[in-house]
Write a structure and sequence with these properties.
- The protein has 257 residues and is α/β, with parallel strands linked by helices.
- Helix content is 46%, strand content 15%.
- The chain contains eight helices and eight strands; from the N terminus they run E-H-E-H-E-E-H-E-E-E-H-E-H-H-H-H.
- An eight-stranded mixed sheet has the order 3-2-1-4-5-6-7-8, with helices on both faces.
- Helix 2 links the parallel strand 2 and strand 3.
């Protein structure tokens, strides 16, 4: 049986605990400086709670540092156990864990919110390790929760993370802006939901380049100008609309030439 420690009590820590709790992996301990959240996480999965990494023992095979990027190296350097140490960051190099001979990256490429956890089996897990033995162990862990395990080095993972931010975070921000625009007119965002679903479905089935529609692609200046007039009271959104429109128009003009 593989035993794991999880350092953290945020979204990633909840995802790891929830995913591995459904397997034969034993969650040895939860370590978090946030007393309330850490105890809730530990109690939920019926395991030990610690508030200091100095109290971690050598009974776990791997310790996941499931923290914000700016805290990972600092906390990892305080871990004194002989376990494998792994972080879950898309952007940080495996070398952030250089204090540990046996180190790894275990990066689920998915948006994760602890109150609405995704199905781990469909999530790509990107792995990297400092040596073959460590890689075998993290691969065996990934295989227990996901059908999509990939060996990705630090540089490749950074590009995946950048693309993920564009495809997910940027897109969601546009949903926020669209919802706000409609709300100010007492209109419902619900009418856009079938459109959002269809756009995502098409993006998953074919190259997004071939799915673009709308006034920017067809260079419909009449419609674009009308849209811009509607945004005269929101200059920040108007500027964003213009920049995205220009980007779309330029891309499709290039592909037509």
């Amino acid at each position: 049986m593989i035993r794991i420690n999880i350092i953290g009590s945020g979204n990633m820590a909840w995802f790891l605990a929830d995913s591995f709790a459904k397997t034969d992996v034993a969650i040895h301990s939860i370590c978090s400086r946030n007393l309330e959240q850490g105890q809730v996480l530990a109690n939920t999965f019926q395991t030990h709670y610690l508030n200091d990494v100095a109290n971690l023992d050598d009974k776990a095979d791997i310790t996941f540092v499931a923290l914000r990027d700016d805290a990972i190296a600092f906390v990892a350097n305080q871990i004194k156990t002989n376990s494998i140490v792994a972080h879950c960051s898309g952007m940080l190099s495996i070398d952030e864990l250089s204090a540990h001979k046996d180190r790894a990256v275990f990066y689920p490429l998915q948006t994760i919110i602890k109150n609405d956890l995704p199905n781990a089996s469909e999530i790509p897990i990107c792995l990297e390790a400092s040596n073959a033995g460590t890689l075998r162990l993290v691969e065996s862990l990934a295989d227990k929760i996901s059908h999509h395990v990939h060996f990705i080095n630090s540089e490749q993972r950074q590009y995946y993370h950048l693309a993920a931010v564009m495809a997910n975070n940027f897109t969601n921000h546009l949903y926020v802006l669209a919802n706000d625009l409609l709300s100010k007119q007492n209109l419902s965002f619900d009418l856009l939901k079938p459109l959002i679903t269809e756009t995502a479905r098409k993006a998953c089935r074919s190259n997004p380049l071939y799915n673009q529609t709308g006034p920017a692609k067809r260079d419909d200046r009449n419609t674009i100008d009308k849209h811009l007039n509607l945004l005269n009271q929101n200059m920040e959104l108007k500027e964003l609309y213009e920049k995205i429109t220009q980007s779309i128009s330029k891309l499709y003009q290039q592909n037509e030439n």
